[in-house]
């Protein structure tokens, strides 16, 4: 795993973040939503996927994993904050993907710190 931690495009945590973001982004296609739910999931899903891609490209970018955790928390609380809890499927999608994003970001944090300490190119 040490070799995987420092090579771009190889970390499974970050690939999971990309997949979770894409699923969130597209979830309005198969669930009943309102405008608030749809746009919340599109925006947060896109941000999760883009941050995952950035972390894949630059393995030593530690703050990217912190951003991922924050985005996961925002996705988890969004049904209450944006007022779409009456739409069960999209709410559960927000809660599940939000929790999984927090877990993936937290699990990737030590790996990103290891890559950062090893001096991987792409860290700023």
Secondary-structure blueprint of this entry?
Blueprint: H1 2-6, H2 12-26, H3 35-57, H4 62-81, H5 88-117
Characterize the overall form.
elongated
Please give the radius of gyration in angstroms.
15 Å
- Give the N-terminus to C-terminus distance in angstroms: 23 Å
> Which percent band covers the strand fraction?
under 5%
Give a short account of the largest sheet: none
SSE pattern, N- to C-terminal: HHHHH
Separate helix tally: 5
Total domain count: 1
Structural class determined from secondary elements = mainly alpha
Name the average pLDDT.
Answer: 89
Catalogue the unreliable spans: none
Provide the helix percentage. Answer: over 70%
Folded structure, characterized:
The chain is mainly α and 124 residues long. The chain has one domain. It is built from 5 helices and no strands. The protein has helices spanning 2-6, 12-26, 35-57, 62-81, 88-117. Helix 2 (12-26) runs antiparallel to helix 3 (35-57). The model has no long low-confidence stretch (mean pLDDT 89). Residues 13-106 form the SPW repeat-containing integral membrane domain. Keywords: Membrane, Transmembrane, Transmembrane helix. It holds the Pfam family SPW.
Summarize this, please?
Keywords: Membrane, Transmembrane, Transmembrane helix. The chain has helices spanning 2-6, 12-26, 35-57, 62-81, 88-117.
Q: What are the defining features of this structure?
A:
elongated, mainly alpha, 124 residues, 5 helices
């Amino acid at each position: 795993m040490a070799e995987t931690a420092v090579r771009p495009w190889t970390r499974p945590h970050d690939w999971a973040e990309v997949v979770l973001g894409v699923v969130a982004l597209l979830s309005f296609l198969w669930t009943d939503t309102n405008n608030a739910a749809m746009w919340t999931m599109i925006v947060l899903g896109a941000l999760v996927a883009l941050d995952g891609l950035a972390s894949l490209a630059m393995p030593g970018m530690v703050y990217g994993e912190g951003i991922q955790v924050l985005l996961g928390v925002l996705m988890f609380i969004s049904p209450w904050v944006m007022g779409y809890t009456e739409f069960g499927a999209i709410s559960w999608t927000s809660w599940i993907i939000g929790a999984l994003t927090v877990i993936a970001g937290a699990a990737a944090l030590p790996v990103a710190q290891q890559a950062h300490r090893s001096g991987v190119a792409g860290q700023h």
